[in-house]
Amino acid sequence: MAHGHPGDSAAPRLRYHGILPALIGTTVCLSVAHAADTNKPQTHHTAPAPSAATAPRPASAEHIIVHRIPDSAPGNQPGGGLIHPQDGVKSVSTVSQDFISKQAPMATAFQLAAMLPGANVSSSDPMGFSPNTDITVRGLDNSAIGYVLEGMPLNDVAAYSGTPSQFADSENYQEIALSQGSADLDSPVLNAAGGLMNLTFRDPAQKAGGDASVSYGSYNTNREFIRLDTGDIAHTGIRGFVSYSHGATDNWRGPGRDEKQHVDFKLLKEWGQGNRASLIGTFNTTITSWYPEPTMDTWKSDGIKGQNNLLAHYDSSNPENGANYWRLWRDGERTLYGGAPVHLTLTDHLTLDVTPYAQLAYGNWPGGSTLSETGLYQGTQALSDTLNLPGAQDGVGVVRADYTQRSYRSGFTSALHYKTGWNDFVLGYWYDYGDDNEQQPFTAVQTNGYAPDIWAQNGRDVIRLSNGERLLGGSFHTISQTNALFVGDHMSLLHDHLAIDLGFKAVMMSRDGTNSMPGPQYHVGSNSMEPLPRLGVRWRIDAENQIFFNATTNFRAPDQSALYNTYDPSSGEMYGTGSADVRNEYSISEELGYRRTGRWIIGSLTLFNYNFTNRQISTQAVQNGSIVSTTMNAGGQTSRGVDVEIGLRPWHHFSPYVSGEYLHATIDNDLISGGDLLRTRGRIAVRSPTLQAAAGLSYDDGHIFGVVTVHYTGHQYATFMNDERVSDHTTGDLAIGYRFSDHIHLHQPTLRMNFINITNEHYLSGVASPTMNAKDTTGVYGTTIAGSAPSYFIGGGFAALFTASTGF
């Protein structure tokens, strides 16, 4: 309130010009400086001319300084950082640093996105180290989702899946955005019927400094993290950061220990009118221990104990038992991702975005197995060799069945934008090249259970035949190339009340492969060309309310494993028959939604519909003792449902958030099994819980903070015949902490505790390997179709973690 000077007949008024509505929901500080009283007598003396900062202001006006506290400040984001205002033509949900910074520091992108509508995370490890994990979005699994880090793809080149523990350290994420319905027009992904997970790194700090943290908790977990920011390097305008982390943990059930080292970096240069170029990268090396995935029978009989765990000690007296020794099931993997996103403002109307990228990966996914010393086959070719396996009994010895993958991927995306009037045209091109080499050698196991070279790279340690060649269960080499052209137009009409997006993408994909195993198959190849049109509309009713509609198309070629024959080295028989004549999945999806961005409430409600042909379902198969990823064709599918999420802006430092989903996903046709048909038409699709709900409550006053979250997942079927399912389950997590004020060179030293699965719920978190039918059933043509047991993920148990961190 403005006050007049004493003796004034009329007090000057502070006129309100509508600035504050733009700051609703943002904390502001107002400082009022009264002008000098011109009625006072003036003292005449010589003085220096006033500077701009000290010059007197007109007496007729008040001076108001508005200090804006950024939305990114801790505790200042709606829903505790689990929701953000959106303005596009499709459904998008986000997780920001405000929420991420309060979670366990080794939490993966999957775990951090688990509260968002439609996201169902199946994990095996509370600490996030294990690769035994999956995420479904609206019932569509991990391999149906695109993963992109600042314009570069992170999906596996062969199986489309993503391993979130490899992506980045959580401290370096600025935001995780999940588009549930579709990928962006220019996204470099092929498989994103289930949507797009778009990951964004924080920008390097303007000033030199850094962050460091140490953590210790349950299961002898320890983690150390440090990040260094360069600030402006030698006045070039270039700034960057590099971070390193190390973590290790014991398996929470059964024997085993995981260890991980990780490096992230980013260099950034900004200049001119919006020009921006960066170099980003992430390197990960890890060795993880396998968590056995039980059947329903073993789960009911043993739970988290007994046969659902690997053996802590090697059993040399029994080869079948010895194959379950935990050291034979340790996975080693190294990955390197690199990209260089560039944005250039060419003219007032023309901009160019280019992102070259590259990906290198090597891993070994072994398993304990047994092998006969005689009667072996290389593909279909019988061998006369006799092996000499340590500790063999009755001609059978324990081996480590290795499964190595060495892959290289590179490419670039480019998009030229031309903006004029109410049109923003885009013309773009995406090229991707992949080189994938997968082999299945074997390593002999010593009588004490030792098998050398966990990476299976040393040629001296693998089993070789008398002619010097390695004994192999499989050997595939695939070159894949993708060319995509896209064109679109974003139209902003009626003062941006109406926005229309039109787009068209033509994708051409070719695969050329060789199967080096002796047999009927050597060269394989496939070619695909798919047109992918799209349409999006957003109508802004007023400043707080919007409706949107989005219709997109997607396609996905089957995994590379579908191309190749696989053989049993003990009999020469085929595990599976590969074919170049495989059918691509094609889907059409629609969304109709409402958004509100109000003074206190931010929320959305989205209706969605999907229609699939040749629906690809990711599963796992045992090949020569190794568990590998593959896909199965689930025919047609229709998925319909509704997503809802609501978050409140901070009120007395409290920020609640709720989300939920109703999903009705059905199989459209009977499925082929052997020479008959299973009666699957109209049954519920696998991995598609009908109901999901999540709620979170955050408190943050700048010093004391806490987050409590609860997540409910309804039952989900594990077979296409719906004769076996996972029960519903509810889990909860808690985080509490305290931020100290800056002290000397330390910026906000922080102590926090994270409690994961606070009720220590023992539950099946998801379906690892679905099957057609669990019980024997009669097919359409009257034959008996034998049942096959699905396998499941066991959810991680209770864990507590203490973290001390500080900036500097």
TrEMBL record:
PROSITE patterns: TONB_DEPENDENT_REC_3. It comes from the Bacteria. Keywords: Cell outer membrane, Ion transport, Iron, Iron transport, Membrane, Receptor, Signal, TonB box, Transmembrane, Transmembrane beta strand, Transport. Its main location: membrane. InterPro entries: Beta-barrel_TonB, Beta-barrel_TonB_sf, Plug_dom, Plug_dom_sf, TonB-dep_rcpt-like. It is found in: Cell outer membrane. Residues 87-186 form the TonB-dependent receptor plug domain. Gene3D superfamilies: TonB-dependent receptor, beta-barrel domain, TonB-dependent receptor, plug domain. It is a multi-pass membrane protein. Residues 39-59 are annotated as: Disordered. Residues 307-758 form the TonB-dependent receptor-like beta-barrel domain. Residues 46-59 have a biased composition (Low complexity). Belongs to the TonB-dependent receptor family. This is TonB-dependent receptor.
